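Sample intake sheet
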Amino acid sequence: MGGHCREAVSAHRTVVVDLRTIADDETTASAAGGDVLESGPVAVLGATGVVGTELLRMISQRGIPAEDVRAMASGGESSVAYGAGLIPVHPVREQVFDDVRTVFLAAGAEASRTWTPIALAAGCDVIDTSSAHRMDPDVPLVIPEVNGEELDRLKASPRLVANPNCSTILLLMALTPLHRSWGCERIVVSTYQAVSGAGAAAMDELRTQTRSMLDGDRIVSECFGEPCAFNVFSHDSAIDASTGRNGEEQKMLQETARIWNADVPVSATCVRVPVLRSHTESIHVELGTATTVEAVRSAIAAFPGVSVIDDRAANDFPTPWKASDGDLVLVGRIRMAADARLQSDGRGDRFEMLCSMDQLRKGAALNAIQLAEGLKSI
């Protein structure tokens, strides 16, 4: 391959990652498989943002005809990509919901708080990818592989389901098989989060700053308080003066408790890195019952939606490049922690691992589509 490209092999397909852009494969099937969305047209509010465009891409891959998709946004765009063509972008109006069965909200918390009651009043099922309803006890917060049974209490439309934060999804997809088998007592996690989590403008800024730095030009930072090219900095969410935790770290703590229905301490340090797409996490977990590295690896490998990449001899482990444009959570570097309390038979209670996930897909769009498909099956 040329100097700009590298081949990254995941468990489900080969992904070609270009340093100038993320490779696109409109024919890729979802790792989740599953039924296509049915029972009427769907709408995507925030259709021109990074999550909205990914939602449209994945809906198209599921075979939904363009005439059954309503793309909505508040900007000035007149059309957005859908499959091999374009579909019109509609301004957000109450009338758009009249013939829609499922609404995906991908325009931020404020827009979700405004439009959720209107969409529900129109009889729509609503999947909210923002933080607006995540801590509402009356709204299920669901990762289908982790606590999909929460959907069962939503028997009749209209229904509202919240999509968890992407960093929480990555963490719990990796740790839920351990929690079910041995119980998680304490979690310490450091995140390495791609700039696409802050939107399309942040991705453009990383590209522009990278070119400027290499050309020796002045760096302009508008999306973050720090340059994002060739730099690592604390997550850009607001910091609570009393706890010292930023918003992302607080979400991981609170959402883990809600989804697992367990009070497990989560000590998170969330960081932005100069990566366009896909988050990575380094995890240290203390288990309630001692076990072996082999048992931990087997439990993770058997969990749906997860692929273990853990070749010590070849130094082959999860990376954002391997995770990008894929639907699987990649887990590797599975090992006994240095502070593990070892038993005479070699079992221990503390383990470490490295995980990567495309946060625009499983961390947002794919999880949302899985939720909608789950509602259809009830």
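Comment: Residues 1-34 have pLDDT under 50 and may be disordered. Residues 54 and 365 are 6 Å apart (CA to CA).
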